[in-house]
Amino acid sequence: MALADLAVIGLAVMGQNLALNIERNGYRVAVYNRTLERMRQFLAERAQGKQIIGCETPPDLVASLKRPRRLLIMVKAGSPVDQMINELLPHLEPGDILIDGGNSFFKDTERRLQEVEARGLLYLGIGISGGEEGALKGPSLMPSGHPEAYRALESLLQAIAAKVDGEPCVTYLGRGGAGHYIKMVHNGIEYADMQLIAETYDLLRRGLGLSAAQIAQTFAAWNQSELNSYLIEITAQILGVMDTESGEPLVEKILDVAEQKGTGRWTSQEALELGVPIPTLQAAVEARALSAQRSLRLEIAPQFSGLLLPPSPVAAIEIDSLKRGLYAAKICAYAQGMAMLEQATRTYQYEFDLSEVARIWRGGCIIRARLLEHIRRAYRQNPHLPNLILDPFFRQALLEAQPAWRETVQFGVGAGIPLPAMSAALAYFDGLRSERLPANLIQAQRDYFGAHTYRRLDREGVFHTEWQA
Ligand code: 6PG
Questions:
Q1: Which atom of ligand 1 is nearest to the CA of 103?
Q2: Whether the Cβ atoms of residue 419 and residue 196 lie closer than 8 Å to each other
Q3: Whose CA is nearest to atom 9 of ligand 1?
Q4: Is 98 near ligand 1, meaning CB less than 6 Å away?
Q5: What topology is assigned to 6-176 in CATH?
Q6: 78 partner at 20 to 30 Å CA-CA among 159, 307, 318, 427?
Q7: Best CATH choice for the domain 183-432 from the list 1.10.150.20, 1.10.10.10, 1.10.1040.10, 3.30.470.20
Q8: What would the pLDDT profile of 269-316 be if each residue is shown by its tens digit?
Q9: Position in ligand 1 atom list of the atom nearest CA 139
């Protein structure tokens, strides 16, 4: 039997769809799944008649591959990846290539890469975005690791990736865990974008009393504008889906508790480590945590109902203002993610090309958006842009949207509708455009109670004051 070009290990949703995508592009794929039943079912159904061969043990899988062997691990992030690597290693030879395509934590990728490469093998970590459909039809791929491993995979990755204007949404992102780092930040932005859209939905629904069908139309129209993006598009579709039992919009029947698998939290934790402000991304993670406190919310809600003074101080807001507010907040969310990547290049030995990052996010991934073409251009024109909002296009967009953005936040505050991400974005913007912040007072307080010292605007040096008379 002919040897396979690549192995896919782990046949959950992403593994299955990637295997099919790779096969469709002319490669022969060997597959393995720890639960054999799942693999047999895949072979009998979706993989039937295709150049996909099932292997029942790791040694069989390794034996079915051309040399150097290329193995794509698509198992759950965390210890299952280590377990799989340990199972495979005894059967592999120097020069073989191990690829982790899961949502691994970048520090785990760094560690695994060293362990695997110490044995003469090559390692590649690939952030893969696009969910089920992306994996099958063309995801955005964020690979990093050994350059030789990338070269050996490049044409395959280019073939299976999403294409925008004929360009594949993949590029070599450097050594180590750079790819998984970028995927982590992608997910932080994903959380923020989703939360901003959800807050806008809340303003339209609770604030303006629009029906799900009207909100669906609104988002569909917005998708034809500068807000054009995958997340806006699917939001419009979601809002149009009816519950078959009640005939009401299905979205209204869904429990309002947002779950998370951890990548957004990693982004938050990592940003705190770096000391980079990403308040909109942080707010999105925390909003999920607050949504999860549902029983507490149900207890508190009746205790604080009817707080708004009649007549409602906020009669109405133009829907177009909400759109502008959402757009401005979204720009700030992306600016925060890019700023975090910028800082990471300095803290770690990563050499991110931010215009390339924006380029490969334009298609296939969850945060794909028209905006990314402008982000790509901004960093191509000025790779050392200190912050995205300084790019002339984004500066102008924020200046134009700014009044409507404030109105949007005021509307939410007046109506008692929480806008944690939207208002955090506005505070980020206002913070950055403040020549003077009240941090002088913080410094004075620190010096008062802890003699932590302060610096002065008008003189060099470090000062301490005996503040108590
Ligand atoms: C993607 C997504 C994906 C992620 C899900 C769920 O880019 O395709 O980021 O990788 O796993 O969106 O993430 P949460 O469960 O944390 O929401």
A1: 10
A2: no
A3: 187
A4: no
A5: Rossmann fold (3.40.50)
A6: 159
A7: 1.10.1040.10
A8: 999 999 999 999 999 999 999 999 999 999 999 999 877 755 554 567
A9: 8
